């Protein structure tokens, strides 16, 4: 028994060496197939806050993220980057009072085997304040004035009282919650949803607060004053435009005016419109821009400095088309010593455009040609070209649209049937 124990003691170093070598070989085999990689985790880890007292609120800058350097086998790196919530950075706020605190960041790794080499920051500064909640009446501020001849009534709001919630340092600055409504130039009642603002004593907005509700709907009645009335403007037109022309449009600026009379009955009996002085269009051929005075009843005046309206009249020529038959086709560009025969020799040209221009058009104003410059002897099918001496007209079509041209040496060209 003693001899056996002595033999065991004697070979123990050999056994330990063999074991270490076996472990080393195993580690080498494992690492060669799945090597260890040390690197910065590709996504910054958002810092989570836990244990916060509901009566406190976090103020100041955002907490931010943590940059982590890890060491892990390559296969584990794939798991780390492909799964969510593998890494968590937690800051515990349990039991904290209002004030500024420097707290540690607890980094949690939900994967094995992973070794955290480093991470930054390891601590964060947290500022906590008491959460205040106060109620305020909405201060509605009306800016501007309605249009002349109109008046603003008493506005209504769908919420008169709101609650302001936020950090104590900000909430204590609030003096009122305002809503601003601009009624400048309004001629009818306004219903508008307005975003509320919490402001201090100097009317400066206070940030970092929550207003409940954050908007209010305001209805502002706008009515016409007694003795005033809005009426449309009707343009009175006499005469006819020139022959071959048509009236395309008549517009007036402004299209409506506000009138006033010391006797409201006169204004109330108006038919809903006032007329301009007559505009004579006899023989007109072009567009017209003209200021016309209004033909107002006795005792009625236009509100403001306006004494006339701008009238714009659109006049355009009537479009039509006109055929010119038996127009001869001329050959141009024929080389010396050659003859050319055109078939057919006469074509019909249809021209469209303003009727007055068509009425003045004569066959002498047109020329139909075919260009044979550089063409060899033989038979050619060509497109005639129409030269028109009058602009603003369009060549609608040529019938036929192609002609046959036979080019031959002098005296030998014979037209094909």
Q: Explain this structure to me?
A:
It is a single chain. The chain is mainly beta. The chain has five domains: 1-33; 36-121, RNA Polymerase Alpha Subunit, Chain A, domain 2, CATH 2.170.120; 130-224, YbbR-like domain (RNA Polymerase Alpha Subunit, Chain A, domain 2); 228-317, RNA Polymerase Alpha Subunit, Chain A, domain 2; 319-409, Beta Complex (RNA Polymerase Alpha Subunit, Chain A, domain 2), CATH 2.170.120. 13% of the residues lie in helices and 51% in strands. It has five helices and 35 strands. It is flat and about 140 Å long. The N and C termini lie far apart (139 Å). Mean pLDDT is 85; it is low at 413-417.
Task: Please give a quick description of this structure.
13% of the residues lie in helices and 51% in strands. With 417 residues, the protein is mainly beta.
User: Which consecutive residue ranges, at least 5 long each, have pLDDT under 50?
Assistant: 413-417
Which CATH architecture of the largest domain would you pick? Beta Complex
CATH class of the largest domain: Mainly Beta
The level of helicity is: 10-25%
CATH names the topology of the largest domain as: RNA Polymerase Alpha Subunit, Chain A, domain 2
Count of helical stretches = 5
What Rg is obtained from the alpha carbons, in whole angstroms?
48 Å
The chain-level structural class is mainly beta
SS elements, strand count: 35
| Percentage of β-strand residues | over 45%
How does the overall form come out from the CA principal axes? flat
